Amino acid sequence: MAQAATARATVGDSEFDRDTALTRREPGVYDIDLSAGWTVFGAVNGGYLLAVLGRALTDALPHPDPFTLSAHYLTASRPGPAIVRTELVRTGRTLSTGQASLLQYDEEGREVERLRVLASYGDLDALPDDVRTTAEPPAIPPPDQCFGADDAPAPGSVSSPITDRLMLKLDPATLGWALGEPSGKGEMRAWFGFADGRDADPLALLLAVDALPPTAFELGLTGWVPTVELTVHVRCRPAPGPLRVSVTTRNLAGGFLEEDAEVWDGAGRLVAQSRQLARARLG
Amino acid sequence: MAQAATARATVGDSEFDRDTALTRREPGVYDIDLSAGWTVFGAVNGGYLLAVLGRALTDALPHPDPFTLSAHYLTASRPGPAIVRTELVRTGRTLSTGQASLLQYDEEGREVERLRVLASYGDLDALPDDVRTTAEPPAIPPPDQCFGADDAPAPGSVSSPITDRLMLKLDPATLGWALGEPSGKGEMRAWFGFADGRDADPLALLLAVDALPPTAFELGLTGWVPTVELTVHVRCRPAPGPLRVSVTTRNLAGGFLEEDAEVWDGAGRLVAQSRQLARARLG
User: Which segments constitute the Acyl-CoA thioesterase-like C-terminal domain (chains A, B) (predicted)?
Assistant: First the structure.
């Protein structure tokens, strides 16, 4: 049985799959119990929420894969029961467009909307192989030269439930904030995978783009950086194995900042791009 | 009267203002006649359409300024009558969120949705002055060393109605495509203003991010590059005077490409950022 205990989780049979599983209540309407396993400092991770809505749309739309999702975050989600309502906006030959909302109940039992998404879906396997990209993968040292939560000097000090579910190894060049010496540059880079060994699929990319510590930490800010809007483009089905994620901020101004993420697979392909607008608490 | 004839148009009294003017039919629902003046090769410009929905939301939402709009383009708009339907999704203290759809009628008189937008609005004048940006404005030669439609060797050859309404001066370094010698780099840079001298306001930024020729032209592609999704972040109220716009593509692959735009004002501030996912016709 030792073999079973160390077996890698697979797509369809993993923590991420179980925690994004939806029960169809009626066509286009789903129930889900938001897991406490994807929280950080008590807040449910925005990438996990996006993956939940992305999975609902995979069921509700005629095309299988997320190509682009734009999410506006409205109120803070809590672990526990939630409802997903979807709408088919348009069906086209190569793309279909849908909308999805995540709702929870307040103390009086009224529905409160947490997150609304517009999304266009297609078929990643139907895309031509043409690549004329000029983008280069981020330079990140090998995983054994990067740092995860397990490597923290005080074990558990930076741990949160989501940390336990991810294999996140941060580039030491973007880790100054953890030592009290932020670089002043809006950069964060890491290797990304699931702790249980599940490979990434397009839905996992929706989590990957919002899984790193905020770039604001390297800009000398502390505390929560809530997402206002997050748009992801999935460009390619990722190859098995760990992913490289690079997040960059060019403009921190007026109490807001953008975070641009790129996700690269082991085959050297740019598999996802994202941009979010987040609020900064300027000290 | 010569003075009146050469007077600069102003915000509120210009072609752009007249062509984005909406008539409120009932609360949250508006009529508009889409102008043929913002078409290029027969298609209504996506930035103009975004400005129309942005203006409707300025009326429908409690906050005055667009902070972030995410648009999914569904079907091709035509000049002529259209309806805008808006929904107030959430009202917060510093931000409110809304949704807007642009619809037109088909031959049988049925409504067809052209474009759907999720947007969060705030008050640009209420933002703190903090700027910790590391971004640098694009290096574009002065306008008199850049090239507009008037400078084309065959007058009118690259003219389209939108060209007549804009003051668009392209950086010669990104103009190789017009001479049959595309650079192979996904870059397009230009000075942007209105031909009638109207200064840019936040709504004009929604047009500015989608007004340049496609970066795909410099990558050696020709023909139409339809937008699937376009998200804009307005970061600052622009100073009067011409704007600098830089558009970059890093990843052309699988028949799609992203276009990242930055808009800088004369005060050296990054006033807007955008990213779109567009379809490429690979030759």
Answer: 149-278
Range of the domain at A85: 2-124
Same domain as A225, residue A163: yes
* Structure confidence by residue, pLDDT tens digits, A134-155: 789 999 999 999 999 878 665 4
Q: Which of residues 207-236 of B touch A (CB under 8 A)?
A: 219, 228-229, 231, 233, 235-236
Instruction: Clarify whether residues B44 and B118 are in a common domain.
Output: yes
Domain count, chain A: 2
Provide the shortest C-alpha distance from residue B137 to chain A (in Å). 11
B:32-91 residues touching chain A, CB 8 A cutoff: 67-68, 70, 72, 74-75, 89-90
The mean predicted confidence, pLDDT, of chain B is 93
Q: Do A256 and A155 have their domain in common?
A: yes
SS (H, E, C) chain A: CHHHHHCCCECCECHHHHHCCCEEEECCEEEEEECHHHEECCEECHHHHHHHHHHHHHHHCCCCEEEEEEEEECCCCCCEEEEEEEEEEEECCCCEEEEEEEEEECCCCCEEEEEEEEEEEECHHHCCCCECCCCCCCCCCCHHHCECHHHCCCCCCCCCHHHHHEEEEECHHHCHHHHCCCCCCCEEEEEEEECCCCCCCHHHHHHHCCCCCCHHHHCCCCCCCCEEEEEEEECCCCCCCCEEEEEECCCEECCEEEEEEEEECCCCCEEEEEEEEEECCCC
Residue of B nearest to A237 (CA): B254
pLDDT along chain A (283 residues), means of 10: 65 96 97 95 92 98 98 97 98 97 95 98 93 88 92 61 93 94 96 97 98 94 92 97 97 96 96 97 65
A116 and A153 co-located in one domain: no
Is B41 part of a structural domain of the chain? yes
- CB contacts of A99 in chain B (<8 Å) are 116
User: Which of chain B's residues have a Cβ under 8 Å away from the Cβ of A130?
Assistant: 252-255, 282
B42 pLDDT tier (thresholds 50, 70, 90): confident
Same domain, B243 and B172: yes
Residue B74 lies in a domain: yes
CATH number of the CATH domain containing B79: 2.40.160.210
- Residue A136 belongs to a domain: no
Q: Name which of B53, B89, B221, B228 to mutate to probe chain A: the one with the most chain A Cβ atoms within 10 A of its Cβ.
A: B228
Whether residue A159 sits in one domain with residue A115: no
With CB atoms and an 8 Å threshold, state whether A90 touches B74: yes
With cut-offs at 50, 70 and 90, classify the pLDDT of residue B149: confident
Would A163 be classed as within a structural domain? yes
pLDDT on residue B133: 78
* B95 contact A CB<8A: yes
Res B135: pLDDT: 87
Mean pLDDT of B111-120: 98
- Average pLDDT of the residues in B228-249: 97
Q: What percent of chain B stands above pLDDT 90?
A: 86
Residue B106 to chain A, least CA–CA distance (Å): 15
CB–CB contact A228 B67 (8 Å): yes
Q: Is the Cβ of A255 closer than 8 Å to some Cβ of chain B?
A: yes
Mark whether B100 and B191 lie in a shared domain: no
